[in-house]
Every structure is written in structure tokens, then in C-alpha cells.
Write a structure and sequence with these properties.
By secondary structure, the chain is an all-alpha fold. The chain is built from 3 helices and no strands. It has one domain. The longest helix has 26 residues.
């Protein structure tokens, strides 16, 4: 089995998502915080980059919606700040 650069990128993305979830469970970050949504969006985006080179439809769907939901959270954070 070969481990290409895009596998490393995807693994970093997985690590970021796991780290973010651990922070949430340890109550070091709140789900409403900007950093929570940014880290989730970054992690999922890195996984999507890896999927461009080694495609898996089910993983693509999950990560695509993970990015969309995270972008919603980012937008919601900034929208609330304008009020």
C-alpha cells in the first residue's frame, strides 16, 4: 500500500475533526464558537481534497455536508455578531 501526499492531507483532516470533537467533549470549546466551525470546515475540506485523488462516494457525501454545515455555523456566528 502506498501512502501518497493526499493521504497525508486527508489524515490531517481526520485528526483536526477528532481533535475538535475532543475539545467539545472536554468543554474547551463551545459548538457555537467560531473556532469550532472553522476547525470542522478545515478538517472536512482536507478530507475532500484527499477524496479528489482517491474517491469514495459515501465519504464525499459526509464531508461535503460537514463543510456545508460548518459554513452555516460560521455564517451564523458572524450574523449574530451584527445584531
Amino acid at each position: 500500500m502506498q501512502y501518497a501526499w493526499y493521504d497525508l492531507v486527508g489524515s490531517i483532516g481526520v485528526g483536526i475533526i477528532i481533535f475538535t470533537y475532543v475539545l467539545l467533549q472536554l468543554e474547551k470549546v463551545r459548538s457555537e464558537s467560531l473556532i469550532y466551525s472553522l476547525l470542522n470546515a478545515l478538517g472536512a475540506s482536507l478530507i475532500l481534497i484527499s477524496l479528489v485523488y482517491s474517491f469514495n462516494f459515501s465519504a464525499f457525501i459526509v464531508e461535503f455536508f460537514w463543510v456545508l454545515i460548518s459554513l452555516y455555523g460560521i455564517g451564523k456566528y458572524f450574523w449574530k455578531g451584527q445584531k
